[in-house]
Design a protein that fits this description.
The complex is a heterodimer of chains A (about 280) and B (about 270). By secondary structure, chain A is mainly alpha-helical. Chain A contains 13 helices and no strands. In chain B, about 45% of the residues are buried. Classes of the chains: A mainly alpha (about 280), B mainly alpha (about 270).
C-alpha cells in the first residue's frame, strides 16, 4: 500500500515536470538540430547550429557566462565562509536576526536590487558619488557599465544561495570537535582544513553548484549593470530568438547551457545526502 | 584570539555584510524622493511627488495594472503549487517507495537550473505549440520552479513529524481520508503556510521567468527592469518601493492571521 501511495502522491509533480521541464527541453533539443533560420520541427537533422556556435563567435557570450559564473562562485564562497562562521560564533537570537536580514532580499525582486545597485554606483549624481562629493568634496569615477559592475551584481544576487547551504553544512560540524581541536592547539588554518572543510563539504558543494548554475544563466546583472561592456549567453540566445528569428541557432546555444548545467548538477545531486542535510 | 575578541570581529564583519546588502535597496528608497528626471544626489528638493504620481496621478493606471497582473499570477501559483507540493512532499519525505531517490533528484532539477534558460525553453516550446504567451503561461512557468521549492519547504516540516500519529489514527479505525484531513494536514499546516508565503514572494518578485513567458502582459519586476534602461524618472524607484512594501504587507497580514486564527499546537 505504501508503495502505491508514493507513486500516486508523486504523480501531480511528475506531470508538471514532464510538461513544464522535460518537454520544453526536448523541444529545444529537436529545434537545435533543425537547419538554421527555419521554423519547422521536422526537417533533416543537422549539427550545423552547434558548429556555428563555435565558429561564428557565439563562444564569446558562452565564455563570459562561464567565466562570470566561476568567478561569482569563488568570490561568494570566500565571502560566505567567514560570514557563516561569524553567525555560528555569534549564536543566539542576534545570529538568527542577522541570518533573516541576509535572507530577506531573496524575496525582493532582482530588478529592484540590481536597479538599486546601479543607482548606488551611478556616476556624478549617483548615491555613492553624490554623497562623497557632498560630504568630502571627493569626485570619483564610476564602474557602472563595466564587466566588474556586472560581476559585483552577480555576487550580490547569488551570495545567499552559497551562504545558507554552507551554514547547513557547517551546522553538521560538531562544535565540541572544533573546541577539542582548538584546545589541542590546532591553528585556524588546521581547523579549517582538517575539520570544517571536510565535514561542511556537502553544504559547500550544494551552495557552490547552485551559485554556478544560477549565475551561468543570469542576464539581468549584465543588462542593468554591465551596459554594453559584455553580452552573456542568455542575452545572445534571446537575440537569436527575437531579432534574428533564428530559433535553431538559439536552441543550440540553449542546449549547450543545459548540457553544462547537467554535467555540474546531476553527479552532485546523486552524491549529496539530502536527508542528512535538510532532515536531521 | 580570545572568545570575546572573536565575537567582536564576527559582529563587525556581519555588520559590514548586512550594510552592503541593504545599501542598494536604500538607494532605491533615496532615489524615489527626488523630483528630477536626472538624478543628482543629494537632491535639492526632497519630496514624495513620485509616490503621489504613482498612486493618484498619471502613473495610477500603470501601478494598478502591474500590481493586478503580479497578484493574479502569484495567487494562482500559490494555490496550484501548494496543491501539488503537499502530495509531492509526502512522496519526497514520507512514503517509502522504489522511485523515491529518482523522484527527489527530479524535483531538485528545476531548482538547480538557470531560470532564464528555463524561460527561453518554455518560450520556444509555447511558440512551437502555437500557444500565445500571456499571464497564464507565466503561471505555468513559475509553477515549474516554485512547486519544487514549496515541496522542499513542506518536506523539511515532514522530516520532523512523527508517523506514529497516523498509525494510531488508523488503529482507532479512521479511514484514509479522515487520517489525511484530521492528522496529516494539520501537522503539515505550518509547513504549508510557510511554503505558500515562499511561493507567493518568489512569484511576486520573479523576473527571469516572467520576462520570457508573460507575452503582452507585464509584471512589476518586468516593468521595473525595462524602465531602468529607458525612460527613467523617480516614478520608477517609487513603484519599486510600493511593490516591495505591498508584498511585505501581504506577508505580514498572512502571518498575523495565522498567529491569531491558526490551530494551536499542544
Amino acid at each position: 500500500m505504501m508503495r502505491a501511495r508514493g507513486w500516486l502522491a508523486a504523480l501531480p509533480m511528475l506531470t508538471l515536470l514532464a510538461a513544464g521541464f522535460a518537454a520544453p527541453i526536448a523541444i529545444v533539443a529537436v529545434t537545435s538540430l533543425m537547419p538554421p533560420r527555419t521554423f519547422s520541427l521536422t526537417g533533416a537533422l543537422a549539427l550545423s547550429n552547434y558548429l556555428a556556435a563555435f565558429t561564428e563567435g557565439y563562444w564569446r557570450p558562452l565564455m563570459w557566462s562561464a567565466l562570470g559564473a566561476l568567478a561569482t562562485t569563488a568570490i561568494c564562497l570566500v565571502l560566505a565562509w567567514p560570514t557563516a562562521n561569524a553567525l555560528m560564533r555569534l549564536g543566539g537570537r542576534v545570529a538568527t536576526l542577522v541570518a533573516i536580514l541576509i535572507a530577506l532580499p531573496i524575496f525582493i525582486s532582482e530588478s529592484v536590487r540590481l536597479f538599486g545597485l546601479s543607482l548606488f554606483l551611478m556616476p556624478g549624481g549617483g548615491i555613492l558619488a553624490g554623497t562623497l562629493n557632498e560630504l568630502f568634496g571627493i569626485r570619483i569615477g564610476s564602474i557602472l557599465n563595466t564587466r566588474l559592475a556586472a560581476l559585483i551584481g552577480l555576487v550580490y544576487i547569488h551570495f545567499p544561495f552559497v551562504l545558507f547551504p554552507l551554514m547547513l553544512g557547517l551546522g553538521l560540524v560538531p562544535r565540541d570537535q572544533v573546541e577539542a581541536a582548538r584546545d589541542l592547539g590546532a591553528s585556524g588554518w588546521q581547523l579549517f582544513r582538517e575539520i570544517e572543510a571536510p565535514l561542511a563539504a556537502p553544504g559547500a558543494a550544494i551552495g557552490a553548484m547552485l551559485c554556478f548554475v544560477l549565475a551561468l544563466g543570469a542576464n539581468a546583472e549584465a543588462a542593468i549593470l554591465g551596459g554594453r561592456a559584455v553580452t552573456v549567453a542568455t542575452q545572445a540566445i534571446e537575440q537569436r530568438f527575437s531579432y534574428a528569428q533564428d530559433w535553431p541557432q538559439g536552441a543550440a546555444l540553449t542546449m549547450l547551457l543545459v548540457l553544462i548545467t547537467a554535467l555540474v548538477v546531476i553527479p552532485l545531486l546523486r552524491r549529496v545526502d539530502l536527508d542528512r542535510l535538510i532532515g536531521r | 584570539m580570545g572568545a570575546r575578541a572573536g565575537r567582536a570581529v564576527a559582529a563587525v564583519w556581519l555588520g559590514v555584510v548586512v550594510t552592503l546588502i541593504y545599501l542598494p535597496m536604500l538607494s532605491v528608497l533615496l532615489a524615489s524622493l527626488a523630483n528630477t528626471r536626472y538624478m543628482r544626489f543629494p537632491h535639492r528638493v526632497w519630496t514624495l511627488d513620485a509616490y503621489r504620481e504613482a498612486l493618484f496621478g498619471v502613473g495610477q493606471a500603470d501601478t494598478l495594472r502591474l500590481h493586478q497582473t503580479s497578484l493574479a499570477i502569484a495567487l494562482a501559483v500559490v494555490v496550484l503549487a501548494v496543491a501539488i507540493a503537499v502530495f509531492g512532499a509526502l512522496a519526497f519525505a514520507r512514503a517509502r517507495w522504489r522511485g523515491r531517490g529518482l523522484f527527489r533528484t527530479l524535483v531538485m532539477l528545476p531548482i538547480f537550473f538557470p531560470q532564464p534558460v528555463l524561460g527561453l525553453a518554455l518560450l520556444l516550446a509555447l511558440t512551437a505549440a502555437g500557444i500565445t504567451p500571456d499571464w497564464r503561461t507565466a503561471v505555468f512557468a513559475h509553477l515549474v520552479w516554485i512547486a519544487p521549492i514549496v515541496t522542499l519547504v513542506i518536506s523539511i516540516r515532514l522530516y520532523g513529524y512523527d508517523a506514529a500519529q497516523e498509525e494510531a489514527a488508523f488503529d482507532l479505525g479512521a479511514t484514509r481520508l479522515q487520517v489525511f484531513r484530521e492528522v496529516t494536514l494539520p501537522a503539515l499546516a505550518p509547513g504549508i503556510v510557510s511554503g505558500a508565503l515562499f511561493g507567493f514572494l518568489l512569484s511576486w518578485s520573479n523576473l527571469p521567468l516572467s520576462v520570457f513567458t508573460t507575452g503582452a502582459d507585464t509584471t512589476l519586476p518586468e516593468w521595473l527592469f525595462s524602465r531602468t534602461a529607458t525612460n527613467y524618472s523617480p516614478l520608477v524607484p517609487a513603484v519599486a518601493v510600493i511593490a516591495t512594501a505591498a508584498s511585505a504587507v501581504i506577508v505580514a497580514a498572512v502571518a498575523v492571521i495565522w498567529r491569531l486564527a491558526g490551530p494551536r499546537r499542544g
